[in-house]
Each structure stands twice: as structure tokens, then as C-alpha cells.
Sequence to fold (916 residues):
Amino acid sequence: MSTSNIELPAWIEILLIPILNILMALFFAGLIIFAIGENPIDAVRIMLNGAFGYDEGVGYTLYYTTNFIFTGLAVAIAFHARLFNIGGEGQAYIAGLGVGLAFLALDGVLPAFLLIPIGILAAALFGALWALIPAWLQAYRGSHIVITTIMFNFIASSLMVYLLVNVLIKPGSMSPETREFTEQSWLPFMHEVLGIFGIEVTRTPLNVSFILALVCCLLVWIYIWKTRWGYALRTAGQSEAAAIYAGIKPKRIIIITMSISGALAGLVAVNEIMGVHHRVILNFTAGYGFTGIAVALMGRNHPVGIIMASLLFGVLYQGGAELAFEMPKITREMVVAIQGLIILFSGALALMLRPVIVKIWLAIKPVPSAMQHG
Amino acid sequence: MQHQQAKGEGKGLPLSSTPPPDYLASDTNPPGDQSLAIELRKISKRFGSVQANKDIDLKVERGTIHGIVGENGAGKSTLMSILYGFYQADKGEILINGKPAKIKSSRDAISAGIGMVHQHFMLVDTFSVLENVILGAEQSAMLKASEENAREALQQLSDEYQMSVPLDAPVGDLPVGQQQRTEILKALYRNAEILILDEPTGVLTPQEADQLFRVLQALKDRGVTIILITHKLREIMDVTDNVSVLRLGEIVATQRTADTSTTELAELMVGRKLQTQQFKKVDNPGGENGIAVHNLTVTDDRGLTRVDNVSFEVKRGEIVGIAGVAGNGQSTLLEVLAGIQSPDTGSFTINNHQANANSPITPKEMREIGVQHVPEDRLRLGLVKSFTAAESSVLGYQNRKRFNWRMFLNIRSIRAACKKLMQAFDVRPPDPKLRSSSFSGGNQQKLILARELDKSPSVLLVGQPTRGVDIGAIELIHQKIIEIRDANCAVLLVSVELDEIMTLSDRILVMFEGRIVGTMKGGEADKTTLGLMMANALDDAA
Fold:
């Protein structure tokens, strides 16, 4: 008998199952660590300590988290319209181009209070445009959006290499990157902001785009569940026929949703370019777009879940780096394997435990609620 | 009602009943009665908190036709799925020909001599009848030999039971009645001595249904035992020897068909007295046209003509029913009039707005000009299963001012409005926060009807208003449709249930292969003539 349509209480669905999935992943990761002769408990301790143990670690963890929130939200909002946006990586990359073009043209001219909004808008706009092409192809030509968004990642990558090597490169430089932007265009670092309030923390790449990410979570939540546009989006995602019946145009939903999705992915460029590098460099997206898929899956496409999943991946990135440093036997590649296990268990195998839990729940459920059968 | 009772039952249920009766221990089993083809003893099945079957005792005598009736969700399908090995019973036992049988899969069921004809045929459209029959019962790696054997056996079978089917024709090209025969042949070819038919006449014209019943009679005369699951009580009265009534998962009565009546069966099914519905027919309504269709033709994506040069009118204050076997263009017609599809040629005027291929009216505009649509497929179109009832209750009206505040949906006013709809149409349970999919079919339908009728339509398009709806809810739905007609609304009704068409319609149009092949006044319509029209065979019969 199928258990997929049996409802579970929210706390099981949102908390218990993801936690169990992570524990299973950690168990298998522990086996690997044990097999190479290290102590798994120590490894976890080092990881957690690296991620949360001191203020620099926390800063790095939250800096990574910021990127994952943006790309996770991008995947999630598309998913609610039943669109699989695999192109977050490319959209973020092209968004970096948007920021670069805007700042190369304007950074000596305009003051910070204009430059920064322009930079954010340019990132969102370029990300949206890069998502818009696959969206249009899906809506009006029937090209499958999974395929087109994947291919657009490659196109974005090649395009950026070409532009950085041949066009945007700083004159006289050997390294394929733009010149550094003037300081008016830099986003304030968190250690600077906190410094104003007299809180001294170590210098980290964490910048105010972390707050932007949290604001985006709230906005996405409101958009999907509290507005008529989100209603239309969810209707189209659940049933195209019902959407047409309700006077909603599914093609328009595809275009609008993918634009929002691309814009959210594009905000990675705000964190990376405006917040940290202050120039456009090669491969600044570093796989955040792809990890966003796992983040969204794990966060059940809900902003709160996405914040938690992003935090987890932030811990894995930062704590993992620490682990590779502290335990020489555990290489950088090993850390990637552990991340892979977590993605496997909480993404691809996310529902593996569910039937079992449904059975247990049905057996111990206090008062049977009335349900229709048929 | 069903809801609350299910709840009440659920509570007393979990393992709190008395220790298992001793016949469950196999050594003390009472011997099975040899004259029974099937005996079910205390079959129980529970899905989560829902008791789908509870202590079912059923005896089916060999060589009889045994009817099983019950409302949707009464547990008929679950019971048959247990018998056919799709589900395992939680407890109880099955005896076939007096011997205990373990049926763990449909393979077990087939080898025990049970064959099943599903409501939706399990056939491969592009395969021939012969290929479909041997599918899964091939005797060798190469098909040739199996086919030759099967051809001979099938020829014998179809001669014996007067069921001629072209063995080499692709199944997809055959009429539905012959597809059903293919299913029956399939079962017989596997030596089925017990045949289960699940709602076999849902897709047949009355004439095809009669042919089916003749075949069933012939099978019975040769000693085949038949279980007929249906919600059409007239069929039960016509063809069965015995009948069992299921209600809320339990058998409430098993009787000789000769000793009962449709009224009694209906009351047993619902569990209360029913009023017979008689509505006054409107003859020649004087009003203006609500809908006027001129030479409308619609082709689908594959280039097939779905609606073929159709013209008709629906006056205000009149219900026009479109009868026809499913798939003869009624659904397309309804969707075109609702603005969901656009016509290829021809035009129509609906509530004084004209539409054709070049200037279509969208579903959104339809709602604004007072054309409301209760869609045929309520689960796919009428509501969104994962939405709450409140959310589904504004589907299509989500942009209306009263449901919004600035950029936000006004959840509170949506819930309040939903609650009001639920009270007006007796939707149970009246809880706007419950998921749409948790309601029974009848209650979903009442919610959709409430949503559309609440907007006081001047033209109402209704498709299959009571498909899959419990008898109790049918009364109310019919009542509401009549009320809106009496409020001077033009109503176009599409239904495959002839009884429903005849009960509600003031005028009846019959569609066959996209064309309107007959018209009758509602007060003068009779089933035979309509049935012949539905098969486009009126002239042949005359």
C-alpha cells in the first residue's frame, strides 16, 4: 500500500525526517572515517568546533550559508510551480556579469547609496534574464526546462571565460578578472557593521548580504503563500488544468516564476562580487547553484527549511575545511564525499524512511482523525 | 455523516476487540460449503484510521450472479481488491470452492480461478485482441505457437457465449463494448470460473449493456460465478440472483434479488429514507437565449474532429441536457463554451457575448460575464487537491477584491466565505482548513457547486454533477441545479448518466461522434429511444 498520500504532522515532516536523514548520513560518514583509522566522534567535534567554535568560524559558516539561501530559494520557488531550475549556477554567474558591467561603468561616478542598489538590481536582472530564455523556450516551444537550464550553465561558463579573458580583463593583467571596483560599491562587512556598535569580531567575508538573504526568505514566503500571485503559482504547479480553468495562464506563470528564481540565484553575485571579491573573477559561483538543489530538497522547499538546510551546508563547508586541516588523513576530497552522503540521504533518498515512519505514526497515533477513503 | 461515523468506529477499533475467534486457528476451521464459489469470513482491512472493510461475511453461490452495491467509499473496491490479491486483509479468511485460499497477488487469484474485469480496461491499445489475451499467459518464448493455441481457444469461447470479437483488430480501434468483451475473454482464457466485474456498464450505451448482460447470463448458464459491482440498482434488479449491500465498510444486508426492491436497496445503501425526485419540467420557455451555438466545429491536437458542426440554443430558465456515451464530444463542447478550448470554426453567443476562433473569451472573462462552470473532472480542474478547502473555494475568483487586501490574500475573509458556502451546501465536515483531497467526492462536488452558484450565474455549464457522488448528496445537488434554473439561469448539463439527464433536463440533445443526432423534450423522453440515439441506431431500429 502506498503511504505517500498519508498526511503526517508538520513536526515529523519538517523536523524529524530531515534530522533522521542527516543522522543516517553522518552514520555512514562515520563508518568511512572509522575505516581510514580516525575517530568519527573527534571528526564531528572538530567540524562543529570549526563551524561554531570561534567567531571567525561562525563568520565563514554564515557567509557560505548566505549563498545557499539564495540558490535554495531559487530552486524552491520554481519547484512550487513544478519547474526544475537546474540553472542556478549559470544564473548566478551571469548575474556577476551584470554587477561587473554596472560597476565598471558607474563606480567612479555614483555615490555608494546609489551604487549598491544598482548593483543588487543588476545582479537580479541579469540572473532573471538568464533564466528567462529557458523559461520562454519551455513555455512557448516546449523545450524541457531541466535540459535547457543545464545547458545554459555551460553557455554561461564559456561566455564568462571569453568575456573575462578577452573583454573585461584588467588591462595589463595576466589573470582573467576585472579591475577592482572602487570602495563606494563595496557592501559593508559584518565585522565593520558590528564594529560600529562596539562589537569586536574577527574579519571574515560575512557581509550584509546575509541580511538580504533573510529578507528574501521572508519575501518568498509571503509571495508563495500570502499573495494571489503565489496562489496562481501554486495552482499552476499542482495542476495545469485547474490553472487554466481558474483563468490562470500557465505560460505566464512559467515566465514570471523563472524570472524570480533566476533573480534569487543572481543574488549570489551580490554576496560574492559586491561583498567579498569586489571584482568579477572566474568561477566565483563555485558550485553554490548546484548545491542549492540539495538545499531546497532538504528544506522541503520552505524558506524556514531552506535557512536550516543552508546553515547545515554552511557548517559542512566551513567545518569540512577545518576538518581537512586538522586531520591530515581526511582530505578535502573526503569532506566532499561526506557532503555527498548528506545530499544523498536528505535529497535523493529523502523519502526513504517515510513509509516506515508513517507506519509507526499510524500505530502510535493518539486519536484517529477522520479520513475519507475511496 | 459518513465522516463522523467513520470517526466513531475508528475509536473502538485498534485491537480492543475480543481475542481472535477460534476459527482463525486453522485446525478448528469449520469445513467450507462446497456449493459456495466464494466464501469470505470476517474479512477486515484498515488503511490508517479508516476501516475500509469490517468483519465482512460474504457467501457467493456457485453459478449465480451476485451483485454488490454500495456508495463510494463503502468498501466495495477494497473488498474486491482483497479477493483479487491487490491488498491483503488484516484478518479473516477467503475460501474458494470450500477450500481456504491464500491470495497474495493477482497471480494467485488467477490460478484460483478468479478473473477480474476492471472499470478502466487493462488493455494495450496498440495490440490486437489476440495479443492482449495472451499477454502474461504466453506459453513459449516465441509468440507464434501461443497465438495459434489462443486463436483456437478464443474462437471456441466466443462461439460458446456469442461474443464475437475481431481477434486481429487493434484493441484501440474497437468500440468500448468490444474492448470489454476482450477483457472478459482474457479472464475466460485463463480458465476463470469466477468473474468479477467492476462497474461494467459505466462506459456502455444501454444497448451495449443489454448485450453484456446476455453474455453474463450465458456464462452463468455454463456454471461461471459472477460478481457484479455497480451502483446502478436497476441493473442489480435485472440480472443478479443475490445482492449484498455494503455501507461504511460493513455488509448491511444480503438478500435474494427477487425479494427486494430498488427503493429498499437504496435505503440500505444510504442508511435512511430517500425521497423520490420529481422536478417540474419547463416546456417552451419564452425567454431569450442564454447560449446560442452556431455551426461549431472543434478538432483536437491530433486533428480528430471532436465537435462536428453543432448548433443549438439554451434559453434562460431552461435546462438542456446533453446525453451521450462518454467520449462523443460532450466534454469538448463544454470546455469550448467555458472558454478553456477555442473552436476551429463556427461561433457561439453566451450571455450576449459572442465568441469564435478569432475572438475567444477566456475562462477569466467568462466568470466576469456571469458564465459559471462546474467542470466534469473535479479533481483535475475543479479544485486543487493539496489546497485547503478555503483555498479551493476561491479557485478562479482569487483576484476578486473581497478576497484580497492590497497585495495579500485575505485569508480570514476567504475562510469566512468558505464556511458560508459549506453551510449553504451542507459540505461535511464544514472545516475550511481541511485539505480538499480529504473530502469525499460528494462533498468536493458540493463545494465546487457552492462556489459557482454563489456567484449567481446567468449561464451555468455543468459537467457530470454527480459522478462518483453518494446518493445522499445527489438529492441536494439536483435540487440546487433546479433552483438556479428557476432563478432564470440558462443551464447546460452534460452527463453520461441517462437517469440524471432525464430527471433534470427540460430538453435533451443526444451527441454521437461529435454531432447532435437527436433532440427530445424532457417530459417525453424515454430510455430506449435515447439509448438508440446514443448509439446512432434510431433509424436502423425504426
User: Anything to note?
Assistant: Chain B touches chain A through 57 residues (CB under 8 Å). Residues 143-160 of chain B form the longest helix (18 residues). Confidence is low (pLDDT under 50) at residues 1-28 of chain B. The longest strand of chain B covers residues 36-47.
